[in-house]
Amino acid sequence: MSLSFETLWSSIPVPALLIGPDDCIAEANPVAEAFLNMSARALRGVPVLDRLAIDAPLEEAFRRVRRDQAPMFINNVDVSGGNMAPVQCNVQIAPVTGEVGHMLVLMEPRQIADRLGQVLAVKKSARSAIGMAEMLAHEIKNPLAGISGAAQLLSMGLSHEDQEMTDLIVVECHRIVALLDQVEQFGNLRPPARAAVNIHDLLDRARKSAQVGFGANMAIHEQFDPSLPATFVDGDQMLQVFLNLLKNASEAADATGGTIRIRTFYDLGLRLRRSDGSGNALPLQVEIIDDGPGLPPEIAGDVFEPFVSGRDNGTGLGLALVSKIISDHDGYITVDSTPGKTVFRISLPVAPRSAADA
Ligand SMILES: Nc1ncnc2c1ncn2[C@@H]1O[C@H](COP(=O)(O)OP(=O)(O)O)[C@@H](O)[C@H]1O
Ligand SMILES: [Mg+2]
């Protein structure tokens, strides 16, 4: 078989770019030319990050692909370039065998009809379901207070046996209120009031309150990089994030408990490119690592969606709130989970000097 590179290259049915060791575009296939609305000639030799805006930490991805010499898949990101509107793509980055530093980037635009499109539709309906649920939550809480108040009054004249029933009414009412409170948290989420914050203070507070409450049977270790500069976040909201993650890790462990590690470190490689071309560095890394059973495989891809829960009494709102808060902060959260090791990693910006001085 003697196929030429050109023939093969033009046959790839999705937009493909060949990236050189200098992160510049070495080749673009015809589909990529059409997709990016630019000729291969205009693309060649240009730093890929100047031509492509991908809403994912691309530099970090490149670094990992080169380091591990293994392909990487980034699903469901906005890709834009030139003057085209962002298109949702699944991006694959693969090392080129035998060509040190070269990589192949394939961008597969997502079809509305594909499975992922359905996920999008679910997302959208979940979003409107949240709005609806917020309204309902508000409306239900008042009569609920009436019901549990009436049950308490009723219980006064009752026998011990019958009181068990009124107690049950009160307890269940409380449970509903707790659920509604969680739903309302979404609606009440203000834009973050950001300030320079020592991330270790927040993590320490979260750990302490975990250990006197839901995490009492967990061993929680801190592994902090003391040289980390201040981050730029809303302290209350970020505390909520850490509490939710510690709570999930504690709930995932079996009755005998488990171990959680809270790790912080600096990693300059992570940078989020937005589709408008702007980018912000997210060098502060926080990892919450547990040794529990891992995410249930059937929901692993959707745990950040509202109402997705793998637990009997779960609301599925904990991680949805986490993800909302992190994205309101222009941060980034990922999860990497196998049985015995689940890592939630949050990447945050450094406080600008003006805020750090204040
Ligand atoms: N650390 C973890 N280990 C294993 N599974 C987890 C972990 N964190 C989250 N999950 C899974 O993700 C689901 C969604 O979490 P969350 O959004 O907080 O909702 P909830 O806790 O109410 O179920 C959980 O029900 C659980 O199945
Ligand atoms: Mg939870």
Q: Can you offer a commentary on this structure?
A:
The chain has 358 residues and is α+β, with helices and mostly antiparallel strands. The protein has three domains: 5-109, Beta-Lactamase; 115-188; 195-357, Heat Shock Protein 90 (2-Layer Sandwich), CATH 3.30.565.10. It has eleven helices and 15 strands. A six-stranded antiparallel β-sheet has the order 2-1-6-5-4-3. A five-stranded mixed β-sheet has the order 8-10-13-15-14, with helices on one face. The protein has a two-stranded antiparallel sheet with strand order 7-9. Strand 5 (87-95) and strand 6 (103-109) form a beta hairpin. Helix 6 packs across helix 7 (160-188). The longest helix is centred in the middle third of the chain and has 41 residues, at 115-155. Mean pLDDT is 85; it is low at 115-120. Bound molecules: adenosine-5'-diphosphate and magnesium ion. Residues 244, 248-249, 252, 290, 292, 294-296, 303, 308-311, 314-320, 342 line the site of adenosine-5'-diphosphate.
Percentage of residues in helical conformation: 40-55%
**CATH third-level topology of the largest domain:** Heat Shock Protein 90
Report the sheet-strand fraction. Answer: 15-25%
CATH superfamily of the largest domain: Histidine kinase-like ATPase, C-terminal domain
First CA to last CA: what distance?
Answer: 68 Å
What top-tier CATH class of the largest domain fits best? Alpha Beta
Note the run of SSEs as H and E. HEEHHHEHEEEHHEHEEHEEEEHEEH
Which molecules are bound besides the chains? adenosine-5'-diphosphate, magnesium ion
Gyration radius, in Å: 25 Å
Q: Name the CATH architecture of the largest domain.
A: 2-Layer Sandwich
Beta strands, count? 15
- Main beta sheet: 6 strands, antiparallel
The unreliable regions are: 115-120
Mean pLDDT: 85
